[in-house]
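Lecture 7 notes: from sequence to structure.

We start with a single chain of 337 residues. Read the sequence below before looking at the structure.
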Amino acid sequence: MSNPAVTKDKRSTKHNAYTLILNRIGIYAVIILLVIIGAIVAPGTFLTVDNFGSIVQAVALLGMSAVGISFVVYSSNFNDMSAPMTISFSGMIAVATLGLGFWPAVILGVLAGMSMGIVNGFLIGKFRAHPIIWTLAFNFVMSGLVRWAWSGRQIYPTDTAANNPRAAELFISISRSDILGVPIMVVVMILMFIVGQFILTRTKFGNELKIVGSNYQAAKLSGINVTRSTITVYLIAAFCAAICGIFLSSMAQTGAFFLGDGYDFRGVTAVLLGGMTLAGGKGNLIGVFGGVISLGMLTNIMNLIGVPTFNQWFVQGLVFLFIVWLNSFSDRKLGKS
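Now the structure, written as tokens:
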């Protein structure tokens, strides 16, 4: 006899050709659409090698941050809302310690960012703190501490490395240097995507993370150390954010508490646009790379047609809302949610 208290889910799971296409080729269909739109609204400007090179360079920092956020999303921890301060804090520590030399400053900057990842991972992994609430609160705490430590001021490489001008010069130049004509930032971003994709798809940790993201309790019962996995994903996210912060401070030629603003939502937008879901355990970094590029193309098109910056943020917000809905809709139609 059936239990009358149990209500059968009557929502349709029928799918059509459009749903299948969306699921199979995903973000790269969006990229093709953006290429067509760009060619129409900005003929002679959009479809050039220089413009596409500018797009990739413009999203390099976002790409670095998105790689780290991908691991957090994949593990079903939603997002790292402390990414903005991890970026800012890493850059400020690197700038502040340039008097010790270029490499010591870079290493200290990365370690500073990763220390935030350890705190996040331990509290969320060990004590099951809510990932959104905790990382958002931690972001505010670190923002207050950083503002207090430097009295709300920006710091400059030429000042902090007055006794070591060569270190300041190297630091400022890294965001403007290239390898065989390819900007170093782009090279680093691509390497991060390659290594990240390998970790997710070709390692034991990646396989375990898929189980953790898909079903936390099942992962725990199967003997996977979910606490260690959670700490690791936040360490990876913090490492990627720290590298992003060092390049960003180099580009701005300053260390400031506000440099990382917006990278949390822009990063998770790229991740979700690339096919990952907030439910976890789905997607890969090939798709996320497409998400990063598509956001860059969207911004580039808006710049070419003269859309004001504040309106661009409005459009990106709408894109974020749309892809969250579309992501859920597509999964539901394919019987995956």
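The beta strands are 178-179, 182-183. Keep this in mind for problem set 3.
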